[in-house]
Amino acid sequence: MFLVNHKTKNKNLAFTLVELLVVIAIIGLLASFTYASVNVARARARDARRHEDIKALQTALQLYYEDNGQYPDSGIPTGILPGWSLSNESTWSTLQTELAPYLAQLPIDPAQPASGSPLDRVHVYSYNSNGPDECDQQQYFIVYILEIPKGPDPGFNRCASPVLRYGGSGLNTIEKTVGNKQINQ
């Protein structure tokens, strides 16, 4: 009779250190791609909100003009940019008071810091207007910053000067200048 040794070798079912490191590296790579994609999607969402905010502000300014025959004054001689209303300064509250019948709350940039201006490429909305004493037109312009460059800066034809573009004349800019003017009759 044969004696059968029923003892079988115990196979090691654990992972080796190399296998664990490879798996961790793969997970890290996938996580970094996902994180980058999510950040780009968030930036695009904030930029879309910026465009919507500016359109709402322009609509309120046009309604104000139709009722008052001029755009709200931005000639407040204080702040980072004298004569401007910036959404991160008290000058924005003054503009809010003027536009309250047309827009319940003035928008602020979704990534707005406590200080700075668009000239510093800081995410803040800025408004400037001038009356007929500067030229024969009532006009305003707004400057804002995007996170992802998209399209040229539309610019604004201020008084008799050439087109004013804070973002320059490149094909893809992050700085945008928009405005409107009404010729006084």
UniProtKB/TrEMBL annotation:
Its main location: membrane. InterPro entries: Bac_GSPG_pilin, N_methyl_site, Pilin-like. GO terms for cellular component: membrane; type II protein secretion system complex. The keyword Oxidoreductase does not apply. The chain crosses the membrane at residues 20-41. Pfam families: N_methyl. Keywords: Membrane, Methylation, Transmembrane, Transmembrane helix. This is Type II secretion system protein GspG C-terminal domain-containing protein. The lineage of its organism: Bacteria, Candidatus Doudnaibacteriota.
